[in-house]
Amino acid sequence: KFADSLIIQDTLKKLVDWLLVLEVILEDPDASELEKQQTIQEIKYIEEAWTAMADSFFERGISA
């Protein structure tokens, strides 16, 4: 369980770090429309992953 917890914590941290990078791309005036659309799609994927992880926690009786 300890290793599982560390892996999950590391994954969540990396998701947050990547979201911060994606936000910078969205704010970049030099980013093309295609880059921005791809970035938005990637953010949606991350949100879906985050929700799936949260649902998994809830099913195991873990909530914030």
Key features?
83% helix, 64 residues, mainly alpha
Structure write-up:
The chain contains two helices and no strands. With about 60 residues, the chain is mainly alpha-helical.
Weakly predicted, low-confidence segments: none
Anisotropy-based shape: elongated
- β-strand number: 0
SSE arrangement, N to C: HH
Radius of gyration: 15 Å
- The span between the termini is 18 Å
Q: Round the mean pLDDT to the nearest integer and report it.
A: 88
Structural class computed from helices and strand pairing = mainly alpha
The main pleated sheet reads as: none
Oligomer: single chain
What fraction of the residues are assigned to beta strands by DSSP? Answer: under 5%
Instruction: Classify the helix fraction into a percent range.
Output: over 70%
**Total helix count?**
2
Topology:
Layout: H1 2-27, H2 33-59
Summarize the structure.
This protein is 83% helix and 0% strand. By secondary structure, it is mostly helical.
